[in-house]
């Protein structure tokens, strides 16, 4: 993808967000959704999003729909794929994929976490707006013996992310905490591992209709498996003993690629 197109697309988004959130902006750019869209300084090429429909093939949950009026909001839908993580040496999960929808609300850049940012959009993804595809867990705890637990379900948790213009040309920085729990189902049992909370960072690049980022985290804590209706106490205890749970730190962090599209329905 040409670098010029990448830079122009993200620069336009930054201009639009800055005009809506910058202190001292004129009432025309701050009072309402309609006023913002009619302000030449806020529009730029971003005005082409006005009246755009939800990207084809996406079903948006009601709490993912952007509101008209203040604060300024933009809809976001996206997907993630190619995710992988190693919980402990010999236990890894790969092929993490799924979809999400979110609302991006223009906010002032948090001075404690984003001191160099010009403006930020806070993405809020509700729990029912996140879908994980089943994944495979690979166990290599015994040398020379590898087992695969297929169709491990992943239970999502709602999350909030900051997407900020920190002045780097052609990209927007994203910071969030991904929360999810893995539930392997073996012989009628289902013991939940997690939820984990992995603080991930990355940078979106590309056009507003298909911005891409690779998100990575450092190691993260993993809680012990708790007994439940489908997880007998003995199985939970054995799982914790074998995996050494709870863990203060996983063996490796999470890596996942994501694509996001912005849209702006009619007011």
Mean pLDDT: 74
> What is the CA-based Rg, rounded?
21 Å
Q: List the helices and strands in order.
A: HHHHEEEEEEEEEEEEHE
Helical proportion, percent range: 10-25%
Strand content: 35-45%
SS elements, strand count: 13
Low-confidence stretches: 1-51
Global outline: elongated
Counting DSSP H or I runs of 4 or more residues, the number of helices is 5
Assign the structural class, choosing from mainly alpha, mainly beta, alpha/beta, alpha+beta, or little secondary structure: alpha+beta
Describe the largest sheet: 11 strands, antiparallel
Question: Termini separation (Å)?
Answer: 32 Å
Mind explaining what this structure looks like?
There is one protein chain. The strands form two sheets. Strands 1, 2, 3, 4, 5, 6, 7, 8, 11, 12 and 13 form an eleven-stranded antiparallel beta sheet that branches. The protein has five helices and 13 strands. The chain has helices spanning 3-21, 27-30, 33-38, 40-43, 233-243; strands at residues 73-88, 91-107, 119-125, 130-132, 135-142, 145-156, 159-165, 172-183, 185-186, 189-190, 193-204, 211-217, 255-263. The model is unreliable at 1-51 (pLDDT under 50). Strand 11 and strand 12 (211-217) form a beta hairpin. It starts with a helix and ends with a strand. By secondary structure, it is of the alpha+beta class. 16% of the residues lie in helices and 43% in strands.
